[in-house]
Amino acid sequence: MNKIRTNISSARVYFKDVFYFTVISVLLISLAFQFSFQELVIFTLLFVLLDLYLLYRLGFSKHNEMEQIKTIINSIRKNEFSSPDEIKLGKKLVEIEGDIKAMFLRTHNDIINLKKLEQVRTEFLGNVSHELRTPIFAIQGYLETLLNGAIDDDRVNRGFIEKAAHHTENLNNLLNDLIDISMIESGQMRMSFRYFNIREYLEILVQEFRPFAEEKGLELKFGAIKANLQVFGDKKKLRQVMVNLLSNAIKYTEKGYVEVKVEEEGKSAKIIVKDTGFGISEEDQLRIFERFYRVDKDRSRAVGGTGLGLAIVKHIIDAHESKIMVKSKPGEGSEFSFSLKK
Ligand SMILES: Nc1ncnc2c1ncn2[C@@H]1O[C@H](COP(=O)(O)OP(=O)(O)O)[C@@H](O)[C@H]1O
Ligand SMILES: [Mg+2]
Questions:
Q1: Domain for residue 90, yes or no?
Q2: Is residue 89's pLDDT more than 90?
Q3: Based on the domain organization, do 327 and 213 belong to the same domain?
Q4: CATH of the domain at 181
Q5: Does any domain span residue 92?
Q6: Are residues 178 and 248 in the same domain?
Q7: How many A from CA of 302 to the centre of ligand 1?
Q8: Are 223 and 294 members of one domain?
Q9: Domain CATH number, residue 308
């Protein structure tokens, strides 16, 4: 009895239609056949019984469908599916099955992305704390040693102070890079694109870096670039790119040269920073643009690296709708390049 009531009540959306249909049918038929009162009552009763049966059948199938959908939604809520293919509804519900699958896929992907993001965030925080700890511990160590008497020892005091100062510089570099990367990644990087003369622009940069190259006995070459070549980009941001690429080239090269050149390729100009340094293995080439990834941590730290430089470079070049490329062979040198519209 309960089941009948449930099924009929599931069909309640049809009540109104069935009611009108019944009234009109009974009226028309009784008029057409000129029913007596008794006949009319019997006929109406028969019709009502038929309606009840109809409503029962309709309600039954509707109730079933609702139950199927409810079960699926509950299973989704309880995280019981790992792929949309596991979601199966009856034949009559194929359309809604497609919709539920699409919805499931979206939420599923959102959750996966959120989990990934959370992991990246945790890793990033871990890296930052680790990177901060290294210089801070070093500075603390040198200062304590100095305070404990080394300050009066002329053989070491200056060296210790210099080392502490070096780590302070590292700390400052790290903070600056962190500010940059957080600005970029939170979408606060405002770009300002315009055409500018690439030769004049690179010439100034190369002049700035000449003393650093000479200090290491490296030749800093500046390739022949057409005098009036104009390229399209954000000068300020590209300066950051070039500073990173040039300082890397000088930092990670012990002998030979560092070269800056431009090659025209159709509608774009390729800016190249080449060196004859340590080079980077193919495996590492895939990872050097990741935040904090360094091939040799100690070497990078010793030269004031933060491991964030190339991550910043990649972001800026991406914002130019271009791609930063690297070609390198360990022991032979590296070539970083990117193209700009001309
Ligand atoms: N020109 C290069 N030659 C060799 N290795 C390089 C060069 N540029 C970058 N690398 C490698 O890629 C790593 C990541 O570079 P970067 O993001 O600039 O960080 P870092 O602060 O260590 O310089 C460096 O630690 C270094 O191992
Ligand atoms: Mg660097």
A1: no
A2: no
A3: yes
A4: 1.10.287.130
A5: no
A6: no
A7: 12
A8: yes
A9: 3.30.565.10
Residue closest via CA to ligand 1's atom 10 equals: 248
* Residue 276, domain extent: 194-341
SS3 letters across the chain: CHHHHHHHHHCHHHHHHHHHHHHHHHHHHHHHHCCCHHHHHHHHHHHHHHHHHHHHHHHHHHHHHHHHHHHHHHHHHCCCCCCHHHCCCCHHHHHHHHHHHHHHHHHHHHHHHHHHHHHHHHHHHHHHHHHHHHHHHHHHHHHHHHHCCHHHCCCCHHHHHHHHHHHHHHHHHHHHHHHHHHHHHCCCCCCCCEEEEHHHHHHHHHHHHHHHHHHCCCEEEECCCCCCCEEEECHHHHHHHHHHHHHHHHHCCCCCEEEEEEEEECCEEEEEEEECCCCCCHHHHCCCCCCCCCCCHHHHHHCCCCCCHHHHHHHHHHHCCCCCEEEEECCCEEEEEEEEEC
Same domain (yes/no): 199, 304:
yes
Q: Which of 168, 185, 202 is the last residue of a domain?
A: 185
Pocket of ligand 1 (CB under 6 A): 244, 248-249, 252, 275, 277-278, 280, 288, 293-296, 300, 305-311, 334
Q: Are residues 261 and 308 in the same domain?
A: yes
Pull the structure tokens for residue 126: 């871990």
Distance 231 CA to ligand 1 centre (A): 26
For residue 319, is it within any domain? yes
Q: Which of 310, 314, 336, 337 to mutate to test the pocket of ligand 1 (most atoms within 8 A of CB)?
A: 310
pLDDT tens for 21-69 read: 989 998 899 889 888 889 889 989 999 999 999 999 999 988 988 999 9
- With CA atoms as reference, report the closest residue to 282 among 327, 231, 222: 327
Query: For 272-291, what is each residue's pLDDT tens digit?
Result: 999 999 999 999 999 999 99
Q: Which of 133, 158, 185 corresponds to the end of one domain?
A: 185
Instruction: Specify the number of domains making up the chain.
Output: 3
